[in-house]
From TrEMBL:
One of its GO terms (molecular function) is hydrolase activity, acting on carbon-nitrogen (but not peptide) bonds, in linear amides. Gene3D superfamilies: LmbE-like. The keyword Transcription does not apply. PANTHER family: N-ACETYLGLUCOSAMINYL-PHOSPHATIDYLINOSITOL DE-N-ACETYLASE (PTHR12993:SF11), N-ACETYLGLUCOSAMINYL-PHOSPHATIDYLINOSITOL DE-N-ACETYLASE-RELATED (PTHR12993). Keywords: Zinc. The keyword Zinc applies. This is N-acetylglucosaminyl deacetylase, LmbE family. GO terms for biological process: glycoside metabolic process.
Length: 254
């Protein structure tokens, strides 16, 4: 039986479910670009418009940040070869603190899962890809949980999570302490961040689409890229090698 995650063919359908504009690019942009180059029809569904993001000074002065970031999402998606972008309309929950009214994490999980499930039923993808949430952001965890809930009880697509292996994330944190000492991630317990390297099921070489990934990153002008300031070697590792973990779902034999 063909493995749709590794043997991507023209006409395949992929659904990428993320929480915020830029997750599709900063997170799994190379995988999206690779699927598109191989002929897959890629849909990105984004749960929020990223209203709680911290804009680069001068990038969104006097503008609606959510509108700015939605526009960046659509331009970056085009760079990556995405066929369709859908927004679910929840508000950004923010990294921590009280949950804003209408935010993603304030919504019942079944409601979010139902919204994703409707798109899955319409698109009928072979692969659904999310971020695994191992960076500690509660919205990333919420989208992953909703995808598992939406897919858990019936035969359907392969579900995979894009991961940040512990070994790689610790290298990133070490370099960020020098170049960006005020990042929120330094306040978290390093032991709680990243995915155990033993959980990784697939490592993809995505070097062939590096130019597309870089072009998409450049479209997210309102946000600081997590790769800014990294040494050239570590930046290349992040942008040309992607780590995935297949999710075993309830009732599935896959």
């Amino acid at each position: 039986m063909r493995d749709p995650l590794l043997d991507i063919r023209p006409g395949d359908r992929w659904l990428i479910a993320v929480a915020h504009p830029d997750d599709e690019t900063f997170g799994c942009g190379s995988v999206i670009a690779l699927a598109s180059v191989c002929g897959a029809e890629v849909t990105v569904v984004c749960a929020t418009r990223g209203e709680a993001g911290e804009p680069v000074p001068g990038s969104a002065d006097g503008a609606d940040l959510g509108a700015v970031r939605e526009d960046e999402l659509r331009r970056a998606a085009e760079r990556l070869g995405v066929r369709r972008v859908e927004l679910l309309g929840y508000r950004d929950s923010g990294f921590d603190g009280d949950l804003p009214a209408g935010s993603l994490c304030a919504a019942p999980l079944d409601e979010v899962a139902g919204a994703l499930g409707g798109l899955i039923a319409e698109i009928r993808p072979q692969v659904v890809l999310t971020l695994d949430g191992s960076d500690g952001h509660r919205d990333h965890l919420r989208v992953g949980a909703a995808a598992r809930r939406a897919l858990g009880d019936s035969a359907g697509p392969l579900l995979a999570e894009h991961c940040l292996p512990v070994s790689l994330l610790r290298r990133w944190l070490d370099e960020m302490r020098a170049v960006r000492p005020d990042t929120v991630y330094h306040s978290l317990d390093p032991a709680a961040l990243g995915r155990d390297d033993a959980d990784i099921t697939d490592v993809l070489d995505t070097a062939r689409v590096l130019d597309r990934r870089e072009a998409a990153i450049a479209e997210h002008r309102s946000q600081v890229s997590p790769f800014d300031g990294l040494s050239p070697d570590l930046r290349r590792v992040f942008l040309t090698t992607d780590h995935l973990a297949r999710v075993a779902l309830t009732g599935r034999t896959r």
